[in-house]
Design goal:
This protein has helices at 3-9, 14-24, 26-70, 78-88, 93-108, 112-125, 132-145, 149-162, 169-182, 186-199, 204-219. By secondary structure, it is mainly α. Among the domains are: 73-148, Tetratricopeptide repeat domain (Serine Threonine Protein Phosphatase 5, Tetratricopeptide repeat); 168-221, no CATH class. Helix 3 runs parallel beside helix 5 and helix 8 packs antiparallel against helix 9. Residues 2-9, 34-50 and 69-73 have low confidence and may be disordered.
Length: 242
């Protein structure tokens, strides 16, 4: 081989090398590209149908919610209407919200057992939802409203302990504080009211917690007892010199 050809052999452009590889592996390459194309079409179709289903679910939910928001609808069958949306669109975000709204509507109608059933259903079917805290709070509130105090206390505590960053914690702490107060456990109630006041200083719940704290301190003066100070005439500690 002439020397000039030897010197140029390692300098073949990358595009030429790529084309040579493609020619040698044409069949496998075409099959692979075809497979990727088919997979892309399937994924795109799936996402399109998913988005289409979500839009339909949102429209169905809006058709139920809007009359209630504008005051044009009756509350009589609102919970059942939400349940129909949830049943028709079980795997959509709007369907999940419809189920939660159905539970809340039952609660407003003082149908606490029915509300609890739907809150628990939401917990089972949508455990990864960002609204799971609302469902857990709803379960505890339903137990509370039915007079099942030990179960309600346990449910509020579980929510507080297991979801420390949830937005519903102030409501859970306030409700638990109220139950401890009713159980003649003022120290526990005070601690929870103080936590609500600290985390919601400018909100209505924080204001309510502040008032309940003042009432507690009036009712239980021992809560105002300051810690025992160290005696001022105590002999100073002697430092042993070495």
């Amino acid at each position: 081989m002439p020397p000039y050809m030897e010197s140029d052999a390692g300098q073949i452009p990358l595009s030429h090398k790529t084309w040579a590889w493609f020619e040698a592996n044409k069949k496998q390459t075409l099959w692979g590209a075809g497979g990727i194309l088919v997979l892309g079409v399937i994924v795109a179709f799936f996402l399109y149908r998913q988005n289409e289903a979500e839009v339909a679910a949102s429209e169905a939910l809006s058709n139920v919610s809007m009359p209630q928001m504008t005051g044009a609808g009756s509350r009589g069958d609102i919970a059942e209407a939400y349940l129909k949306v949830a049943a028709a669109h079980p795997r959509s975000g709007a369907g999940a919200r419809a189920l939660l709204l159905a539970a809340g509507s039952f609660f407003v109608e003082t149908k606490y057992a029915e509300a609890q059933t739907q809150f628990e259903r939401f917990k089972r079917e949508h455990s990864d939802s960002s609204f799971i805290g609302e469902a857990l709070l709803g379960i505890a509130a339903c137990l509370d409203a039915q007079g099942k105090t030990p179960e309600a206390i346990a449910a509020y505590k579980a929510l507080i302990d297991r979801r420390p960053g949830d937005v519903v914690l102030p409501q859970a702490r306030f409700a638990l504080a109220r139950l401890h107060e009713a159980q003649n456990e003022p120290e526990l109630a005070r601690n929870l009211f103080e936590e609500v006041e600290r985390t919601d200083p400018y909100g209505s719940l924080g204001d309510e917690a502040r008032m309940r704290l003042e009432e507690l301190k009036t009712k239980y003066p021992k809560l105002l007892t300051p810690p025992i100070p160290m005696p001022t005439n105590a002999a100073p500690l002697k430092v042993e010199k070495r």
